[in-house]
Amino acid sequence: MSITTYVTNLKSKPEHVRKHIALWASVGITVVIFLFWLAATTGVTSSATSSATTAVAQVVDKAGTPSQSLVAGVGAIFTDIKDLIFTPKKITYSSVEVRPGK
């Protein structure tokens, strides 16, 4: 059964049935998204977690007060935008492979 046939059949059903199907479809999609998120956040190895924790601790020590951190963040955004617009990026290739055409 194609999706267009399913939607056509769904349009002919009563409203309470359509709402029921819409609710369970949205719950299913939400569960799938949550599982992907959970897998992505828990898939970090312990050595990477400890180094990330150390890096976060170093950043927190450098941050100072919340207002200093906010000002530094805004300044970093403007610097990034300026670099993005006005600084050309140089791409270097370490090796080039030439193959004969087909």
Protein model, in words:
By secondary structure, the chain is mainly alpha-helical. The chain folds into two domains: 42 residues; 31 residues. Helix content is 75%, strand content 0%. It has four helices and no strands. It is extended. The protein starts with a helix and ends in a 16-residue tail after the last helix.
Brief write-up:
With 102 residues, the chain is mostly helical. It is 75% helix and 0% strand. It has 4 helices and no strands.
* Strand residue content: under 5%
Spans where pLDDT lies below 50 across 5 or more residues: none
User: Helical content, roughly?
Assistant: over 70%
The run of helices and strands is: HHHH
Classification by helices and strands: mainly alpha
List the helices and strands and how they pair.
Elements: H1 3-11, H2 15-42, H3 46-63, H4 66-86
Keywords, please?
102 residues; single chain; 75% helix
